[in-house]
Automatic annotation (TrEMBL):
It comes from the Bacteria. Residues 449-507 form the Glucose-methanol-choline oxidoreductase C-terminal domain. Residues 1-28 form the signal peptide. It holds the Pfam family GMC_oxred_C. Keywords: Cholesterol metabolism, FAD, Flavoprotein, Isomerase, Lipid metabolism, Oxidoreductase, Signal, Steroid metabolism, Sterol metabolism. Its cofactor is FAD. This is Cholesterol oxidase. Residues 121-324 form the Glucose-methanol-choline oxidoreductase N-terminal domain. GO terms for molecular function: cholesterol oxidase activity; flavin adenine dinucleotide binding; steroid Delta-isomerase activity. The keyword Signal applies. GO terms for biological process: cholesterol metabolic process. It comes from Amycolatopsis acidicola.
Length: 523
């Protein structure tokens, strides 16, 4: 049961900035209520790590509060919850964070608690999600388990690959109900691009496999039958799947957590700071906001345990700010280091001699996994374009074992920690992916590496890495009751795979240990 105390302050709080760790911007002075609540466990963020933490603690009888800055995005047949890439609107961007997409296209939309935030860095930007379900709302859905040798070469062997393989990866796959696309769908008219990718990959001598996805493909087959409007089968799924059938964290882990009666999700709660209270509990400060960012209440939560699940950008920056301001003393020196991009490379692939089709079914069907060498393991997949006129173009995406590392630096003037990434530290991996993309594309194709135009990653990892900042279960060294269980815990890459499955599996492993050893003693 929570204990609530209320007061008011005179505060200029017309709107939140949209950066999770920054205070509200100046505005017309108004009385904003201040509320203090006492909680047993607070989880910041509702993505894969936060979702796993919420469910497993709730199942153990521990009441948890999940703070999510964004909103819920319910989906179902013929819904219009998510925005469309071909007709963008305010729902795309988090509180006006990206009025100019990569400085190429201007979007003068009203401020809204939308899906996507671009967190600017020095040399590299991070694309991060907002909303109940976190990145699972907008990720393509590729659910890949690393190979043993690649896993052990890039993550601590003490995680025990045998147990991860036998227990935790299967547990995640079961929760997300992963399936590969059926041949009936792949053979349908709008999946030409997938078939061309498969043909060319085989002709180039590279391995090819279907990619496991957290999707009920019957939804796509029903679209083909005209039972609902197109969403999968026309590629209109890069900013969320309106028709449903995608097993994102909100409809799997979080729904199950709420069903226990022990999990409360507080939406539109933008966390602005974390601290160690004088009594040894964890203090979390959050703005309760409206969908245009107006702050309507300042909230303080005092918790016995704090789980950071706000993603690499959110978690690392909140902890860096706490370290720099002394709000949490003696945080490990490795905080803010060992950041990696997971080697993300995103290409457009154009070939006027080939027919990719328009529209193109999605989100992803096939991939090529070159994992035989743990030092240069990489993955290349084909992804659909949103519904556009026939441009003889589709998308190729590569990622892999990235060796380049960036770091965060606290900027007192901004009261924020900024990512620093210099040069081309992932050059060898990028060159290998470029070679493979070229081979698959063929001599007559034209490829554009969008990552070189606007350096960014959709898979930011690290900043509070295991072994450097946390133990393997996410316990922050020297700080009882403080946990990191999201992409910030990863060591800069996830062994040539999308991060989602490994983040969730590592969190599952961690929660088994935390429930067994910390519940009832630490909190």
């Amino acid at each position: 049961m929570s204990v609530v105390h209320r007061r008011t302050v005179l505060k200029g709080a017309a709107a939140a900035t949209g950066l999770s760790l920054l205070p509200a911007t100046a505005g017309a002075a108004s009385r904003v209520p201040v509320t203090t609540e006492e909680r047993r466990v607070v989880i910041v963020g509702s993505g894969f790590g936060g979702g796993v933490s919420a469910l497993r603690l709730a199942q153990a009888g521990v009441p948890v509060l999940v703070l999510e800055r964004g909103i819920r995005w319910p989906s179902g047949p013929n819904a219009e919850t998510f925005p469309h890439p071909t007709s963008p609107d305010k729902r795309i961007f988090w509180l006006g964070s990206e009025p100019n997409l990569f400085n190429l296209v201007s979007f003068p939309f009203p401020r809204y608690t939308g899906l996507l935030e671009r967190v600017a860095g020095n040399g590299m930007d991070m694309m991060v999600a907002a909303g109940v379900g976190g990145g699972s709302l907008i990720y393509q859905g590729m659910t890949l388990q690393p190979a043993r040798d690649v896993f052990n070469a890039n993550l601590p062997e003490q995680l025990d690959y045998d147990r991860m393989d036998q227990v935790y990866y299967p547990r995640v796959a079961g929760m997300l109900q992963v399936e590969t696309a059926p041949d009936e769908l792949i053979d349908s008219p709008t999946y030409k691009a997938s078939r061309v990718f498969a043909r060319n990959t085989k002709q180039a001598g590279y391995p090819l496999q279907k990619i496991p996805m957290p999707i009920d493909w019957d939804y796509a087959l029903r679209e083909l039958k005209g039972e609902m409007k197109a969403s999968y089968t026309n590629g209109d799924c890069s900013l969320g799947v309106n028709n449903g059938g995608k097993h994102s964290v909100d409809v799997t882990y979080l729904a199950a957590a709420e069903a226990t009666g022990n999990c409360e999700i507080a939406t539109l709660h933008n966390v602005t700071g974390v601290a160690l209270a004088k009594d040894g509990r964890w203090r979390i400060e959050a703005d309760r906001i409206t969908t245009d960012g107006t702050v309507v209440e300042k909230k303080i939560f005092l918790a016995n345990a704090l789980v950071m699940g706000a993603g690499t950008a959110g978690t690392t920056r909140l902890l860096m700010r706490a370290a720099a301001t002394g709000s949490i003393p003696d945080l490990p020196d490795g905080l803010g280091t060992n950041w990696g991009s997971n080697g993300d490379q995103i290409y457009t692939w154009t070939n006027f001699a080939d027919d990719f089709g328009a529209p193109q079914g999605g989100p992803v069907v096939y991939g090529s996994l070159e994992w035989d060498d743990p030092e240069r393991a990489n993955t290349v997949i084909q992804a659909s374009l949103p519904p556009l006129p026939d441009l003889h173009t589709t998308m190729l995406v590569g990622y892999g074992v990235s060796q380049g590392r960036g770091h965060f630096v606290y900027d007192a003037a901004k009261d924020d920690a900024v990512l620093h990434w210099s040069g081309n530290p992932d050059g060898p991996l990028a060159s290998r992916i470029e070679q493979r993309v070229s081979d698959i594309g063929g001599a007559a194709s034209v490829r554009l590496d969008t990552t070189t135009i606007a350096p960014s990653t959709w898979h930011p990892l690290g900043g509070a890495s295991m072994d450097l900042v946390c133990d393997l279960e996410g316990r922050v060294q020297g700080h009882r009751g403080l946990y990191v269980l999201d992409g910030a815990l990863m060591p800069g890459n996830t062994a040539a795979c999308n991060p989602s499955m490994t983040i969730a599996a590592v969190a599952e492993r961690a929660l088994d240990d935390i429930v067994a050893n910390d519940v009832g003693t630490v909190f």
